[in-house]
Design brief:
GO biological process, one term: intracellular distribution of mitochondria
Strand content: 5-15%
Shape: globular
Pfam family, one: TPR_12
Number of strands: 24
Radius of gyration: 33 Å
Structural class: alpha+beta
Keywords: Cytoplasm
GO molecular function, one term: mRNA binding
Strand order of the largest sheet: 2-1-5-3-4
InterPro entries: CLU-central (IPR033646), CLU_dom (IPR025697), CLU_prot (IPR027523), GSKIP_dom_sf (IPR023231), TPR-like_helical_dom_sf (IPR011990)
Distance between the termini: 61 Å
Mean pLDDT: 80
Length: about 1200
């Protein structure tokens, strides 16, 4: 009765799965190849010391070292570090595959875990690992974001509600959300961002765990195996001294004043420190509390609330004194890339190794950059000015993003040097993605910290040696001298097709033509290891001529119409790879149509490439002007295509809501997908007003203006921080935020904020002179709101060519609808500011918003290469296509489901695991396996929270689908709480005026309708109706669906007049959009008749009661209670979820196929697929 057949009418839901461009047929991964990855799982039982044992399922290709790490991550054995594995009497080497061990494949294999002898290094590693486990029990590090830890609010929301029953539906439960979640509320509190359960108590195991003052052991004790001495203070206030020996840990007889290293009585020797502490401290069983800490991404917007640190943690700083051996990063990274890649197993092992090495490199580079800015690393050239200094730390080379020796003077000075680092990183990423054997790039990471950009790079073997010139390709002096090398030409020519780089000639210092296959600044170096390295890839992509101002150029009319070319602050603006591909595809379509028009037999021979040196002002000369003019014309056409094709395509995708950005990061992602650089935001904003139905793009306008403001603020803030002394960072940052976001005019500092200065009045009176305050000593303290907003308007005009007609944050809020809390979030993520988690009052006129204590920390903002598994990415793209086109691809669903199931094993070590889990959950839900869907989506939510952030739009979308899966499983209150949290996060990120809120309000209205809370349901459904009318149109099918939902709620409430009104609106829309003969129109018409009949019966009953006449009793109208299957059907319709009908074993279409039977059938085909794959490979050979 609720018209479930209208599924085909609705467009894709808000935030659909993003399907990337399909790969070419030559690049596609064979379907059968996916079956060649994991062998059947082996069940291994590990016998622990004592009587405990545990069973693990592992693959035959698993290395023993990987099993070793898995045991260190397991809850039972996480406190053990120095151990080995034995199979029978044989100790298994760590590099051995488990499947190659004789007898391991027979099933039920028993392995024994034995403790090894400790060395000083092993002991320190063990202590540091135990210290990390103790710290994981305290929430302070998670709140502060220390070591990448963060909280998982989904666990808090879901805990305690797993046993909810459908029978509670009629119980008196208050489903009302907090007031700040209700429609129309303007309050945006921050404290609910990290919900804290009242029943959660953080565990404290020890009071003190330190290195003893009796270290190091004397020579005679070293002869007895003593390695280290520890001092422990237990919860019972017992002071204990522990000896770390080669055999393990035991209590000694030393005290704070007497050294007696002999074992104490009773003599207890344990191989693990945790086992020893569990025996000597009866208050806690340490092993039952310890859980491995998860490495996650830092949350910038929030941090430690007041009182979050419940107690002192064990001091583990002394255990970090261990200095690990410096790693040869270049050899590790290049060696991992040189691993064989012939079979799928070899490629997966290679991808995992590269990912692990790259992740370690980025982590060390980040720590090194922070150490450089904090002054903890000695520079190589200490006599030079600070901005010219260079550093080496942990075998990594660090430099600062300033114009050293005026190398970028002609390109824009410091602005060009700052941009060059990012351009070089993009070039490294492009060549790494092509992955040509024999051509090597340097590991690179950019770290923006406290206003300074630090470039971290791996050292090329021999590059610091000054007795030889290793540059054999390219130019080292901006084109004055140019050299080439046949080996580099051959390697770079292999990349030219993928990167659209034209092989071209330039003139050297002797007017001799030199052939290049890259930009002239690209340098080729043969390292001492014999490898070919390419450096300085900042001009990998061709220049963007719209931002290369020249009075001599003939500018196309399309560009002149937009006011181009513009003078940019640097000359390194380049086109994106996505734009080049879109431009080539557009030209290919034109050529294909022309070939077909003239009757050409072939229309596929088309290849466009660009010369990156064609518009360089510094010293590059060409032997032929004709070819140069042709390349200039091609570049101008590409720049014009960005304005005339890509930006309109971007706005069309936003208009039809195939792209629905919620914040600056998602807007940037949408821009980049269409090949549009962020510097074109001003053009996008101007074009928004020319689009028909521009009111449907109000959210895009608001987010774009917020992005222009936040990026302009970031540019100003970077320079602002460079004049701040380290002791005044919190005061300076809070002052800057007050000038930016506060409504108060009392933001000027009138006294010194230094904590060390005396502030008591009587001391000031006794001083003979008045000490000048900080506000008069520091330049940063002289900043006023008027000055700051003047700079912001100037920056927005100069960089983005967009005029901000506002002089304060109050004007921005009033004119553009930008939220202060959203602006604070954007600025915090872009600059690394971490503020205290509390509710800020922005509209106070008498006191500033921020104080010094609100600025807790500043985190480095890191840009680095994002390594992905190529095979897994292709499988993911194909699986996404199947999910979206499943109802038209019945015969392929089986195979693609198998691919995605295997994808879980491929992506186990990559950041894309959340996307894989999300897709697996979606498939399981489509196949009506709700239990599996819920389990997978829960894991996807936790991954999104910790990888993307607790307030990221992807996390909000994951919350939405998790709520849907919970509702399908009968846990309706949990579903409701998740939807409330998704709405709260959406309000923080983008505000209430957003299409995503319409989706959430529709779902909330449906869930509350099912829980019989009609008044609250109507509030959310009316909000959804207003938003769908604005962002989808009053004649859209989604607007009709919103009217229909309101009609069903009004019917259940007994208000038939309102129900008739809304259903009649829905009927009129269906009639106009799909015609009178469509099923949806007919169902709506029947529903109208039913409502009319019920309304007539109600009126007759009321009239009969008031008439006081005798006669036959008129039956009352039947008010139908909504059934949960009906509500679930409407929820699926709202979210755009369509169940895929699959063929059963008889070939007949059925609505349900058991997923277990489906997977069994796929496994049966695995052998056949492998055989087919081998045949194909032999034929190719």
């Amino acid at each position: 009765r609720h018209h479930g057949k209208r599924t085909a009418l609705l467009s894709d839901p808000v935030g659909p799965l993003q399907v990337q461009e399909r790969s070419s047929p030559g690049d596609r991964l064979d379907v059968g190849e996916t079956a060649d990855q994991p062998e059947r799982l082996l069940t291994v039982r590990v016998q622990l010391p004592g009587t405990e044992s545990l069973e693990l399922q592992v693959s035959g290709q698993t290395l023993v070292s990987e099993l070793h790490q898995r045991l260190m991550d397991h809850q039972v054995t996480c406190h053990r570090t120095c151990f080995s594995l034995h199979f029978g009497p044989i100790r298994i080497d760590g590099r051995t595959e488990l499947g190659s061990v004789p007898g391991m494949k027979d099933g039920g294999a028993l392995m024994k875990l034995g403790g090894d002898s400790y060395s000083v290094r092993d002991a320190r590693l063990h202590l540091r690992h135990v210290g990390d486990l103790f710290r994981s029990l305290d929430a302070a590090d998670a709140y502060d974001g220390v070591n990448g830890r963060s909280l998982s609010p989904a666990v808090t929301v879901n805990t305690g509600q797993r046993k909810e029953s459908v029978s509670k539906r009629g119980s008196c439960v208050d489903h009302r959300p907090p007031d700040h979640v209700l429609p129309g509320c303007k309050d945006r509190p921050l404290t609910p961002l990290q919900p804290v359960r009242d029943d959660r108590k953080w565990i404290q195991c020890l009071r003190v765990l330190n290195m003893s003052s009796w270290n190091p052991p004397p020579g005679n004790r070293k002869m007895h195996g003593d390695l280290l001495y520890l001092s422990v203070l237990t919860l019972e206030d017992k002071e204990l001294n522990i000896t770390s020996s080669t055999r393990g840990f035991y209590l000694n007889q030393s005290t704070a004043f007497v050294f007696n290293p002999k074992p104490a009585v009773p003599r207890i020797l344990c191989h693990s420190l945790v086992d020893l502490l569990s025996q000597i401290s009866p208050c806690h069983d340490f092993r039952s509390h310890l859980l491995p800490s998860a490495v996650t991404q830092t949350v910038h917007l929030d941090c430690t609330p007041q009182g979050a640190h419940t107690g002192p943690c064990p001091n583990i700083d002394a255990f970090s004194l261990l200095q690990p051996q410096s790693r040869d990063w270049n050899e590790e990274l290049q060696g991992s890339r040189e691993l064989p890649r012939n079979s799928l197993q070899e490629r997966l092992l290679r991808d995992q190794t590269v990912f692990k090495t790259s992740s370690d490199f980025v982590a060390v580079a980040t720590r090194g950059a922070v150490a450089v800015i904090d002054g903890s690393v000695m520079p190589l050239n200490p006599s030079d000015p600070p901005h010219m200094q260079m550093f080496i730390w942990k075998n990594l080379f660090f430099s600062l993003g300033f114009d050293v020796s005026e190398h970028y003077q002609s390109l824009g000075g410091d602005a060009a040097a700052h941009a060059a680092a990012l351009c070089d990183l993009r070039g490294v990423e492009a060549y790494t993605r092509v992955d040509t054997p024999g051509l090597h790039t340097l590991g690179t990471a950019l770290v923006d910290y406290k206003g300074i950009r630090v470039i971290a790079q791996i050292l090329v073997p021999g590059i610091l040696e000054k007795n030889q010139d290793q540059v054999v390709y390219g130019s080292n002096d901006c084109g004055a001298t140019v050299s080439t090398h046949p080996r580099f030409l051959e390697l770079l020519d292999k990349t030219s097709k993928s990167l659209r780089v034209q092989r071209h000639l330039v003139l050297d210092q002797n007017n001799v033509s030199v052939e290049l296959c890259s930009a002239v600044e690209t340098k080729g170096i043969v390292g001492n290891d014999g490898r070919c390295y390419i450096l300085d890839l900042l001009r990998t992509f061709p220049p963007d001529l719209n931002f290369q101002f020249s009075e001599e150029e003939e500018v196309p009319e399309e560009c002149r119409r937009f006011g181009f070319p513009w003078r940019h602050r640097h000359s390194l603006a380049s086109l994106r790879a996505e734009l080049l591909e879109a431009f080539v595809q557009h030209r290919r379509r034109v050529v294909s149509e022309a070939c077909r028009a003239v009757g050409s037999v072939r229309d596929s021979d088309f290849d466009l490439r660009f010369n990156p040196d064609v518009f360089v002002f510094t010293g590059v000369r060409f032997p032929s002007d004709a070819e140069t003019r042709t390349q200039r014309k091609l570049l101008w056409d590409a720049a014009a295509s960005l304005l005339t094709n890509q930006i309109p395509a971007l706005l069309r995708s936003c208009l039809v809501q195939s792209s629905v950005p919620m914040d600056g990061s998602t807007l940037t992602s949408v821009l980049h997908q269409h090949g549009v650089n962020v510097r074109y935001l001003g053009v996008v904003l101007k074009e928004l007003h020319r689009v028909e139905g521009s009111q449907r793009l109000d959210h895009i306008k608001r987010i774009s203006i917020s992005e222009v403001l936040s990026r302009s603020v970031k540019h100003i803030f970077r320079v602002f921080l460079q004049d701040v002394e380290p002791a005044a960072f919190s005061a300076a940052v809070s002052h800057f935020l007050n000038c930016l976001l506060s409504s108060s005019t009392c933001v000027l500092l009138d006294s010194c904020s230094d904590e060390l200065h005396a502030r008591r009045r009587y001391r000031r009176r006794r001083s003979q002179g008045s000490r000048p305050g900080l506000s008069t000593e520091c330049l940063w303290a002289r900043l006023t709101p008027t000055d700051l907003w003047t700079r912001i308007r100037t920056e927005a005009e100069d960089y983005y060519h967009y005029t901000i007609h506002s002089k304060s944050m109050d004007d921005v809020v009033e004119k553009y609808g930008v939220q202060r809390i959203s602006m604070l979030r954007e600025i915090s993520m872009k600059t690394g500011i971490q503020v205290r988690l509390r509710d800020y009052v922005f509209d106070s006129r008498h006191r500033p918003v921020f104080v010094e204590d609100d600025i807790v920390n500043m985190f480095p903002v890191v840009k680095h290469l994002r390594h992905t598994c190529t095979d897994a990415s292709r499988l993911m793209q194909r699986a996404q296509v199947v999910v979206q086109q499943g109802e038209r691809s019945h015969t392929h669903t089986h195979v693609h489901l198998q691919e995605v199931l295997l994808l879980r094993h491929i992506l186990s070590s990559f950041s894309d695991v959340a996307a894989c889990l999300r897709l697996l959950g979606r498939l399981s839900y489509i196949l009506e396996d709700h239990v599996d869907a819920l389990s997978l989506q829960e894991r996807a939510v936790m991954c999104s929270e910790r990888v993307h952030g607790v307030d990221h739009p992807q996390t909000i979308e994951d919350y939405t689908y998790l709520a849907l899966y919970y509702f399908s499983g009968g846990q309706h209150s949990t579903s409701l709480q998740l939807l409330y949290r998704a709405r709260y996060l959406t309000l923080l990120v983008s505000g209430e005026d957003h299409p995503q809120v319409a989706l959430l309000d529709s779902m909330l209205g449906l869930v509350l309708h099912g829980l019989m809370d009609h008044e609250l349901s109507l509030k959310f459904l009316h909000s959804a109706l207003c938003l769908t009318s604005k962002y989808h149109g009053v004649t859209s099918l989604r607007h009709a669906h919103s009217h229909h939902l309101l009609a069903t709620v009004y019917e259940a409430k007994g208000d038939f007049r309102s129900a008739l009104k809304h259903e009649n609106e829905a009927f009129q829309i269906y009639k106009v959009q799909v015609g009178e003969n469509h099923t949806s129109t007919k169902e709506s018409s029947e529903y109208l008749k039913d409502l009319t009949q019920q309304a007539v019966l109600l009126q007759k009953s009321i009239s009969h009661l008031y008439s006081n006449t005798d006669g036959a009793c008129i039956p009352p109208p039947q008010i139908f209670t909504p059934s949960f299957p009906t509500i679930l059907q409407q929820l699926n319709l709202t979210c755009g979820v369509v169940l895929i009908p699959l063929r059963n074993n008889t070939g007949v279409m059925s609505d349900f196929v058991d997923p277990a039977d489906l997977r069994t059938e796929m496994n049966r085909k695995e052998t056949f697929l492998v055989e087919e794959l081998e045949k194909q490979r032999k034929q190719k050979e």
